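seq:
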Amino acid sequence: MDLGQHAEPRSSGMVRSIVRNVATVVFVFVLAWALRTFVFQPYKIPSGSMEDTIMTGDFLVSEKVSYYFRDPQQGDIVTFYDPAFSGDVRTLIKRVVATEGQTVDLVDGVVYVDGKPLSEPYTDAKPSYPLENSSISFPYTVPEGSLWVMGDNRTNSQDSRWFGAVSKERVTGRAVVIFWPIPDIRSLA
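struct:
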């Protein structure tokens, strides 16, 4: 009779252990999903449109929390869903050059916002010209609820000069830190 009494607690202890392990795994997956959905998202940069600020192959983190409390601002580096596709098919990264209501103009390779030339040391003095075969004409006034974004590598970036203003609703976060490769670790904010 002693064997039966010991067998029952052992099997119930094993069941509790399995349930506890499954609950832990589920909790970890739900926490990872929640953090990635609402707090931050890692990205690997596939192209040179933001060079030399962000290099091809860099890994970075885009945080989402600050945009729950404020709108993207001029100078922010934002991640957003590509306006060329509906839904969340592809994510792009660019710098906010102008916000809603501001007027962007490109004159002799220089970006003007509301009639004032921008100081843009991050472009390494690369000129900012309209893109060929684009339907965007200048000067361009950024519509309400939208942003004008451009890559820092102005001679190799399809950006708002190509697809126009980006709706703030398509913004997924603000790039804050490059975390790989190790020699390139630095803040972007």
